[in-house]
């Protein structure tokens, strides 16, 4: 580690850390790129990059237990496809993943024993990632692991953890299992374990960069990042998709795709009339994106489904029905009126400018006349 007396420029990464990562087969460029990306994702100043790098080099990393309940394993799939860092690097270097049904070598009694040993040995110190909703109906019998209900497991594991990270729409808000009529009584982790320290990372699936950034924040500062009223980290869910969407300029101009494949759709016009829920959805999809940052649904030509919002299945369906009213651009307006309203406002502005110019010209002519008369 760096000598405390050695002073480096703000944001610099100590040479020893770079050398150690090179020994592990990670180039300086790749490591610095990762630290820079995490710093930017967390909305931290660039001067914090060195501290982030040092946190990743810490000798002791907290153990992690990954639980899966009523889910499709999409969040685990997203985790396994992480490229900055890879899932292997997270497991081997940053965290000790002691239990994850999908990727662990052990099975049956051995797997359950590993989980219980972690709880007993690191009580109050380990982290938990929960994927999937938790059924409450009929005593939680609709989802059991090793003969124990998901509800009991969640209360035991999350209740004794330092912090729990709920990933995906199902774990954070109930997701599809909690949609009407919700026969299993599916609920979120926060509802099932109200006394636990839980941070929500909704999305279907979770964006693995937000998961990595949350873990990096915890390793760097020893605490979870600041959250909104829904326990979502502000760095990832502090702005609406509508605010950063690359099609926003077309919305402001009143240019909308009317059907999939029409000229407006092919030219990248706003997808509001095709059911896009971006104006009511808080997420950093436009800036972080998916698939190694290459794209996201709206860029690919499909409207946002609002999957990071509570009750997204019930509240946001039918998915191709337009929102009744869109907040933004200084007024509450609908797609039918926003374009005309802007044209009218622009006309008023030009008219006001013309009137003002006329008055200034009139004043100048009158002043010139007075000078001549004098």
Describe the protein's architecture and organization.
- The chain is an alpha/beta fold and 374 residues long.
- It has 3 domains: 8-57; 60-236, Rossmann fold; 239-374, Cytochrome-c3 Hydrogenase, Chain A, domain 2 (Irregular), CATH 4.10.480.10.
- Helices cover 43% and strands 10% of the residues.
- The chain contains 17 helices and 11 strands.
- The strands form 4 sheets. The protein has a 5-stranded parallel sheet with strand order 2-1-3-7-9, sandwiched between helices. It has a two-stranded antiparallel ribbon with strand order 4-8. Strands 5-6 form a two-stranded antiparallel sheet.
- The longest helix has 39 residues, at 335-373.
- Mean pLDDT is 83; it is low at 1-10 and 328-374.
From the helix content, strand content and strand pairing, which structural class follows? alpha/beta
Output the CATH homologous superfamily of the largest domain: NADH:ubiquinone oxidoreductase-like, 20kDa subunit
Main beta-sheet annotation: 5 strands, parallel
Gyration radius, in Å: 26 Å
Write down the overall mean pLDDT: 83
Under the CATH scheme, the architecture of the largest domain is 3-Layer(aba) Sandwich
Distance between the termini: 84 Å
Strand content: 5-15%
- SSE pattern, N- to C-terminal: HHHEHHEHEEEEHEHEHEHHHHHHHEEH
The fold-level CATH name of the largest domain is Rossmann fold
User: Helix proportion of residues, in percent?
Assistant: 40-55%
Q: Can you tell me the residue ranges where pLDDT is under 50 for at least 5 consecutive residues?
A: 1-10, 328-374
Instruction: Characterize the quaternary organization of these chains.
Output: single chain
- The tally of domains stands at 3
């Amino acid at each position: 580690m760096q000598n405390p007396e050695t002073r480096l420029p703000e944001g610099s990464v100590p040479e020893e850390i770079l050398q150690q990562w090179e020994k592990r087969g990670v180039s300086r460029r790749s490591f610095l790129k990762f630290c820079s990306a995490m710093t930017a994702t967390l909305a931290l100043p660039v001067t914090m990059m060195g501290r982030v790098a040092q946190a990743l080099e810490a000798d002791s990393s907290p153990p992690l237990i990954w639980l899966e309940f009523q889910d499709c394993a999409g969040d685990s799939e997203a985790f396994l496809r992480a490229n900055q860092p890879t899932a292997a690097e997270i497991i081997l270097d940053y965290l000790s993943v002691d239990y994850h049904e999908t990727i662990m070598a052990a099975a049956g009694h051995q797997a359950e024993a590993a989980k219980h040993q972690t709880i007993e040995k690191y009580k109050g110190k380990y982290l938990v990632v929960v994927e999937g909703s938790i059924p409450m109906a009929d005593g939680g019998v609709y989802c059991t692991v090793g003969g124990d209900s998901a509800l009991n497991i969640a209360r035991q594991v999350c209740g004794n953890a330092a912090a729990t990270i709920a990933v995906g729409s199902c774990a954070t808000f109930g997701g599809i299992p909690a949609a009407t009529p919700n026969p299993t009584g599916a609920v979120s982790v926060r509802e099932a374990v109200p006394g636990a320290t839980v941070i929500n990372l909704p999305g279907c699936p979770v964006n693995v960069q937000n998961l990595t950034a949350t873990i990096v924040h915890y390793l760097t500062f020893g605490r979870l990042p600041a959250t909104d009223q829904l326990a979502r980290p502000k760095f990832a869910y502090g702005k609406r998709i509508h605010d950063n969407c690359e099609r926003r300029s077309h919305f402001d101009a009143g240019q909308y795709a009317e059907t999939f494949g029409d000229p407006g759709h092919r030219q990248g016009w706003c997808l509001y009339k095709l059911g896009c829920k971006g104006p009511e959805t808080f997420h950093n999809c436009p800036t972080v994106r998916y698939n190694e940052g290459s794209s996201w649904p709206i860029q690919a030509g499909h409207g946002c489904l609002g999957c990071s919002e509570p009750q997204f299945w019930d509240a946001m369906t039918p998915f191709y029905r337009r929102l009744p009213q869109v907040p933004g651009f200084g007024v509450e307006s609908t797609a039918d009126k926003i374009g005309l309203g802007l044209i009218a406002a622009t006309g008023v502005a030009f008219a006001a400018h013309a009137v003002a110019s006329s008055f200034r010209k009139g004043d100048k002519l009158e002043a010139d006349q007075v000078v001549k008369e004098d």
